Every structure is written in structure tokens, then in C-alpha cells.
């Protein structure tokens, strides 16, 4: 694990864990006159949920020169929670880790906090969804001086969007398939895109 990014990763995951714990606590204290579906971590929303997605990231960054090994990370991770303003629109916050890609004799690492607006269209036990928002991404690049790849760290807000389909297993649980694109900045090269294709599980409160 890269120690310079460890506090960011730890803090992000701790914040999400606290949000989920608070929602669970609120649900257990629900009175008999209030439905549990009214609870959500996101302000002004109801029908809250939590989810976890795992998938494959695709870095846009080049491989440099010199014949060094070059490959994308083997996996990505997205932990998130959200809620709905109504039956069709909601909001979501999550932590996303794109793993470590091999570049130019070193590694490229990226992760971030994502805020998104969510649109959802239910069709029986299937629902289609789209997301648009922003990601506070943190990136760090190391490489051999012979590779020609700029090295260093960047942290900034950039855009994100995605779409997917969910399959309801029960009134409270779903399997989701999702594609997402996050724009992040990398030292010396500026804004680049990372695409992820993932499968996940969603539990509704």
C-alpha cells in the first residue's frame, strides 16, 4: 500500500462506514408509525441504500517509452450510499479506488470521493439508471526517468458520469451492472479518463 495515499483511503472508507452505521442505527430505532424506507444518509432523500461494486478499470494514460511493462490495474472498488428525492431521481456519495497500474517502470495509482445525481427508471424487477456528478480524485505517479513519464501527485475535482442496469433479487436487494467514467488529473499530463466496468450488490434500508 502506498503510504502517502493511505490517510486519504482510510479516512474515506471510515466516513462511509460511519454513514452506513448511522443509517442502520436510525433504522433500528424506527417507530411503528414510520416506515424504514423513509431513512437515508443523504439529506432531503428517502429510500436509502448502500452498495459495493468491483470491476475492471481502464486507464487512458500512455505507457511511455523504453519497453517497460505496461498494464492496467486488475480491479477497482466502489463503496457508496445514496437516497432518492422521488421515485426517479436521487443522490449518491461514494469512495472509488482504481487500483495500481504499471507504467514506465513504476506505478500509477488513483482513487477518489464521488458525488453524483442519479436518475432511475424501474421496469418491473429491472431498473435502468444513469449518474452524473464530480469526483475529487487523488493520483500519484512513479516511473523510471528513462520512460519519459512525468511523476508526482495531483488532487482536484473533475467530472464523472455512468450508466447501468439493476436486477432486483428482493424488495431490498439488487445486483447491478455498471459502466462509469471518471476524469482525473495526473502530474505533467493534465486531465485523463479512467473507465470502469463493474458488477455490484445494493441493499436498501
Main CATH class: Mainly Beta
**Beta-strand percentage?**
over 45%
> Low-confidence parts, pLDDT < 50 over ≥5 residues?
22-36
SSE-based structural type: mainly beta
Overall outline: elongated
Average predicted local confidence, pLDDT: 86
**How much is the radius of gyration in Å?**
19 Å
Can you name the CATH architecture?
Answer: Beta Barrel
Order of neighbouring strands in the sheet with most strands: 1-2-3-4-5-6-7-8
Helix count? 1
Tell me roughly what share of residues is in helical segments. 10-25%
Q: What would the CATH topology be? A: Porin
How far the N terminus sits from the C terminus, by CA atoms, comes to: 33 Å
Provide an overview of this structure:
The chain has one helix and eight strands; from the N terminus they run H-E-E-E-E-E-E-E-E. The chain has 205 residues and is mainly beta. The chain has one domain: Beta Barrel (Porin), CATH 2.40.160. Strand 7 and strand 8 form a beta hairpin.
In a few lines, what is going on in this structure?
By secondary structure, the protein is mostly beta strands.
Amino acid at each position: 500500500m502506498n503510504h502517502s495515499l493511505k490517510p486519504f483511503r482510510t479516512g474515506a472508507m471510515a466516513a462511509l462506514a460511519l454513514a452506513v452505521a448511522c443509517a442502520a442505527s436510525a433504522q433500528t430505532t424506527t417507530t411503528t408509525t414510520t416506515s424504514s424506507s423513509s431513512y437515508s444518509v443523504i439529506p432531503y432523500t428517502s429510500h436509502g441504500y448502500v452498495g459495493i461494486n468491483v470491476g475492471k478499470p481502464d486507464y487512458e494514460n500512455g505507457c511511455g517509452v523504453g519497453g517497460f511493462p505496461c498494464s492496467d490495474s486488475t480491479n477497482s472498488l466502489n463503496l457508496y450510499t445514496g437516497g432518492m428525492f422521488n421515485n426517479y431521481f436521487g443522490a449518491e456519495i461514494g469512495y472509488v479506488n482504481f487500483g495500481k497500474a504499471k507504467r514506465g517502470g513504476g506505478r500509477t495509482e488513483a482513487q477518489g470521493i464521488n458525488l453524483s445525481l442519479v436518475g432511475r427508471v424501474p421496469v418491473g424487477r429491472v431498473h435502468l439508471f444513469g449518474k452524473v456528478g464530480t469526483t475529487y480524485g487523488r493520483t500519484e505517479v512513479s516511473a523510471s526517468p528513462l520512460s519519459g513519464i512525468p511523476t508526482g501527485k495531483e488532487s482536484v475535482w473533475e467530472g464523472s458520469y455512468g450508466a447501468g442496469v439493476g436486477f432486483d433479487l428482493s424488495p431490498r436487494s439488487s445486483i447491478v451492472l455498471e459502466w462509469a467514467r471518471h476524469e482525473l488529473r495526473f502530474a505533467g499530463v493534465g486531465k485523463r479518463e479512467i473507465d470502469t466496468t463493474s458488477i455490484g450488490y445494493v441493499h436498501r434500508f
